[in-house]
Design a protein that fits this description.
There is one protein chain. This protein has two helices and no strands. Helix 1 packs antiparallel against helix 2.
């Protein structure tokens, strides 16, 4: 549940920055920022999920040895 709240906060931040960029710079710059940041966020959480599974599997293996 914690990761879901972090994701929602990150998306809210991205939307806020996009609004500021579209007003201050241009809509194209805001669009580039949004696409890059959402892609980064997506791959960050995918890598985090796989790392969490690896860590859980290694802890499972250690507990089986005991």
């Amino acid at each position: 549940m914690k990761k879901a709240f972090i994701t929602v906060a990150a998306m809210t931040g991205i939307i806020g920055i996009r609004m500021i960029l579209s007003i201050a710079v241009s809509e194209q710059a805001a669009e580039v920022f949004t696409r890059f940041s959402i892609s980064f966020l997506f791959f960050y959480f995918i890598c985090g999920l796989s790392a969490g599974r690896r860590q859980a599997a290694s802890q499972n293996a250690v507990s089986r040895k005991l």
